[in-house]
């Protein structure tokens, strides 16, 4: 189904229900109660009479027991009993009589007056607003019809799945009840009645019987006044068994009363007990209504707390190269072992409102780029602008390096925005300059004291390793004659000592003394050559104050100025977040745009060096197959060897393989969703912010939705956020 149509149906389903919620509740609850009426009536009565009463005998009987003609209805029961509904001065009651003795057997209480009120509520809200009920019934039919288009039922235990399953199972019954309700309001499928003068005076039972005398009627089964001056009477006579409408003007035979539509609507087509089906319909509707509103409210309130629902501390982080993430994990471990109940999440997995649900929120946030917030914190920071957090109490540890122009700028701006949103800062902000271990330890001590726990032992955070590396090989990876491609080089660097790292770790390169370092993802494995590491380096450029193009200092050093055999001082930073899974059998999906392929060459190389390896699927996108399909030869060799299980390519400027990585995700969505939901795969994505940072999560959300797992956008988004926070989806964004 087209996404736009689905969105429209979802809007109808959700907003009609919410807009008409009180009305729906009244109609559903009163309908459920009314379903009980025939049953209660049946329980109170003896089984129905088989024999009707002769007309003359009925006249004599009524003349004696009801001389003032207060009878509104008469029914017969087995054992010679008649039950009269009598009224006096607006009061109504049922009384049973012995037909032979003509004596009262006492009042019959089955809550007739109560059901009368409920019926009134069900039909016109007790305010003569039958038209409002009619409109609500149309709306309900729309809501019911829109529902099944939104999700397939699945056998899984979650409120959403129960909502879907019950909706699907009871749909025919619910449609039947609501459509017959509308038909009744339109008087379709009910017997065609003669015109009834609603303003005429009350027509008493005596004149009705007199009129019947003048016809061929011999026996009466039951009779009931349904308007002030109109009765329905079921009779036997020479013309057979008939249903008559009697008014002051005369007698009209009609089809069976109240008609098949009303019987279907009331559920009484198979006797009083089949009416209980309507109780089932009402309970199903009530469940769908309450669960639907609850699911919506839960999403709306941003109740995105997952995992430990009782946690009273939230540890949230925004990290670019993994340090803040690692410190957050260590903080959580230390406080947990002291007995605190903790939830840990990347800021990208949270909505600001969620912070209000915890006693304290502890934030660890680094600064990247030129004073920027890491990608995992940007959406959160923007969302804070329109949030009001009056129950949030937070403590913040900012990571940075004072050799950069804007020291701890991301931490500062997060702090400002939180305070502006109304959150209370409970500890002075801590700023770590360079290696953060010492500052973090002090901060952890303060935090532990604040929350009242004794922190457990902490593991040291690996510090950056200084490394002297010699350039051994440099090869241009793009086609220098193709102006559409960006200048990209593959470098092999060598150390005197064996190296300890995993693919995805970062090599920090300072282009000069006092210059800020630039991180480069390492795309090799020490399993292949323990002294070597490989980089894929794009030559960046920026426009200076005079409008001239200046090459990036670190990239031009690596790609141009550094000579073969020359040595450079660097440092190696562990980037645990971008390590391949520890289990070599776990399926991995690698999504790379442009230079984002850099770490993944190392991922596949690591798998190639392992004997017991799981599947690897690479989705790579760039501009031109013949200009910038980096590492093509190696990738194709790995594919032929079966190391690379699947390779999908998107070259945006080539007509034959056009599109972007997100288009390949959409093409292969069924397989991708299957790998994620049933094969415990992990996704890694690396590339520029515009491609990977937003397009990949959006494409994954869309893939889930299209596969109906789940079908609602906000739920699919929550699944993708969940993958991000539990490490099933790992993004590495390069500027
Ligand atoms: C490319 C790059 C840019 C950085 N920019 C800044 C900056 O503008 N201001 C600052 O205080 N620190 C800056 N830093 C230092 C980091 O904030 C610091 O290394 C921090 O520990 C990294 O934490 P993370 O691994 O969680 O991202 C930068 C680091 C790198 C590698």
Task: List descriptors.
elongated, binds flavin mononucleotide, six-stranded parallel sheet, amino-acid biosynthesis, nine-stranded antiparallel sheet, Elongation Factor Tu (Ef-tu), domain 3, electron transport, 735 residues
Architecture overview:
There is one protein chain. The protein has 735 residues and is of the alpha/beta class. It folds into four domains: 3-45 and 108-188 and 263-299, no CATH class; 313-451, Flavodoxin domain (Rossmann fold, 3-Layer(aba) Sandwich), CATH 3.40.50; 465-576, Elongation Factor Tu (Ef-tu), domain 3, CATH 2.40.30; 579-734, Nucleotide-binding domain of ferredoxin-NADP reductase (FNR) module (Rossmann fold, 3-Layer(aba) Sandwich). The protein is 39% helix and 23% strand. The chain is built from 22 helices and 28 strands. The strands form five sheets. Strands 1, 2, 3, 4, 5, 6, 7, 8 and 9 form a nine-stranded antiparallel sheet that branches. The chain is elongated and about 125 Å long. It starts with a helix and ends with a strand.
């Amino acid at each position: 189904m087209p996404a736009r149509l689905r969105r429209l149906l979802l809007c109808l389903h959700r907003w009609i229900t919410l807009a008409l919620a009180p009305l729906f509740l009244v109609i559903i609850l009163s309908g459920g109660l009314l379903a009980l009426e025939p049953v209660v009536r049946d329980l109170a009565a003896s089984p129905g009479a088989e024999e009707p009463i002769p007309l003359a005998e009925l006249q004599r009987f009524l003349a004696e027991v009801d001389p003032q003609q207060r009878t509104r209805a008469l029914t017969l029961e087995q054992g010679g009993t008649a039950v009269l509904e009598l009224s006096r001065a607006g009061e109504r009651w049922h009384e049973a009589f012995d037909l032979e003795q003509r004596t009262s057997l006492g009042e019959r209480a089955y809550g007739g007056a109560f059901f009368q009120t409920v019926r009134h509520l069900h039909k016109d809200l007790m305010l003569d607003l039958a038209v409002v009920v009619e409109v609500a019934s149309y709306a309900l039919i729309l809501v019911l019809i829109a529902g099944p288009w939104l999700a397939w039922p699945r056998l899984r235990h979650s409120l959403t799945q129960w909502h879907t399953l019950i909706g699907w199972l009871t749909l025919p019954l619910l449609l039947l009840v609501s459509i017959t309700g509308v038909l009744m309001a339109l008087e379709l499928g009910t017997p065609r009645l003669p015109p009834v003068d609603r303003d005429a005076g009350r027509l008493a039972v005596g004149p009705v019987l007199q009129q019947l005398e003048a016809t061929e009627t011999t026996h009466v089964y039951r009779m009931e006044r349904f308007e002030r001056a109109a009765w329905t009477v079921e009779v036997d006579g020479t013309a057979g068994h008939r249903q008559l409408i009697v008014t002051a003007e005369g007698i009209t035979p009609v089809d069976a009363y109240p008609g098949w539509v009303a019987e279907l609507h009331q559920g009484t087509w198979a006797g009083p007990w089949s009416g209980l089906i309507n109780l089932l319909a009402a309970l199903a509707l009530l469940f769908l209504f309450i669960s639907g509103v609850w699911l919506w409210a839960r999403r709306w309130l941003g109740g995105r707390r997952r995992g430990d629902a009782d946690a009273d501390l939230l540890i949230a982080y925004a990290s670019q190269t993994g340090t803040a993430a690692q410190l957050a994990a260590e903080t959580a471990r230390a406080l947990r072992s002291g007995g605190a109940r903790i939830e840990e999440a990347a800021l990208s997995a949270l909505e600001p409102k969620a912070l209000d649900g915890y006693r304290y929120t502890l934030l660890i946030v680094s600064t990247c780029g030129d004073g920027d917030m890491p990608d995992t914190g940007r959406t959160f920071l923007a969302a804070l602008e329109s949030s009001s957090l009056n129950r949030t109490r937070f403590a913040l540890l900012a990571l940075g390096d004072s050799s950069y122009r804007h020291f701890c700028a991301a931490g500062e701006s997060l702090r400002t925005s939180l305070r502006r949103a109304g959150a209370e800062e409970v500890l002075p902000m801590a700023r770590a300059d360079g290696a953060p271990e010492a500052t973090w330890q002090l901060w952890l001590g303060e935090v532990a004291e604040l929350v009242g726990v004794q922190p457990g032992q902490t593991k040291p955070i690996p510090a950056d390793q200084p490394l002297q590396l010699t350039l051994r090989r440099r090869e241009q990876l793009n086609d220098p004659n193709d102006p559409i491609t960006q200048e990209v080089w593959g470098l092999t660097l060598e150390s005197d000592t064996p190296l300890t790292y995993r693919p995805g770790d970062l090599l920090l390169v300072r282009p000069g003394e006092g210059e800020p370092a630039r991180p480069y993802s390492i795309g090799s494995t020490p399993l292949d050559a323990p002294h070597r590491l490989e980089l894929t380096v794009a030559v960046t450029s920026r426009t200076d104050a005079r409008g001239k193009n200046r090459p990036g200092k670190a990239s031009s050093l690596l790609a141009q100025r550094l000579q073969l055999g020359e040595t450079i001082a660097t440092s190696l930073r562990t980037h645990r977040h971008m390590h391949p899974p520890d289990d070599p059998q776990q399926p991995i999906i690698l999504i790379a745009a442009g230079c984002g392929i850099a770490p993944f060459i190392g991922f596949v190389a690591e798998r190639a060096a392992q004997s017991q390896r799981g599947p690897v699927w690479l989705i790579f996108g760039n501009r031109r197959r013949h200009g910038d399909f980096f590492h093509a030869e190696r990738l194709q060799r790995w594919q032929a060897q079966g190391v690379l299980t699947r390779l999908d390519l998107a070259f945006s400027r080539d007509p034959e393989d056009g599109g972007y990585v997100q288009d390949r995700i959409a093409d292969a969505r069924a397989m991708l969703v299957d790998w994620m939901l049933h094969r415990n795969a992990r996704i890694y994505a690396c590339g520029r912010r515009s491609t990977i940072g937003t397009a990949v999560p959006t494409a994954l959300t869309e893939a889930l939705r299209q596969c109906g797992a789940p079908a609602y956008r906000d739920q699919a988004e929550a699944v993708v956020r969940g993958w991000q926070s539990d490490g099933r989806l790992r993004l590495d964004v390069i500027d």
